[in-house]
Amino acid sequence: MESSSGSNHRNLAEESERSIAAVHDQPEPRTTGGGDDDDPLERSSEVLAKGLSSMLSSVIKDFDFRARETLGSQDQLSSAIDRLTRELDQLLEDAPLPFIMQHAAKISSVRKRVSSLNLLLKSIQGRIDNIDRIMSIGTTHEKTTPEGSE
After folding, report:
1. More confident call, 66 vs 10
2. Which residue of 28, 46, 49, 116 lies most exposed, with the fewest beta carbons within 10 A?
3. 125 phi/psi in degrees, rounded to 5
């Protein structure tokens, strides 16, 4: 299935090719004066015009070719996006929402409980560290002071 913008791009590219071909198919302008070698400035202008026309023609053909390639890749991208959208819609239809929500709620409550236990364990660890520090200070204090000197 072809999009309307895609056909517009193709029509524009074909139209520009036809206009370029029409310019090249036109007969060369002739001077109304006597011979062809009358005015060297006019001859050099014609040569310059032909050169510019030839150069621009090749550039436009290159751009048209790239535009056609871009249009083709955009068509491929569009079809891939459509396919992925259909697959995602199918997956969403197949997955029962209440089932997923129930498990998500369970996971969330487990996460909250684990977080709460983690805070409790950190608090307990802090208390144990304080007790250990107090005991180590008391032990070193007992070793440094003789019992009979007080």
Report:
1. 66
2. 28
3. -60, -40
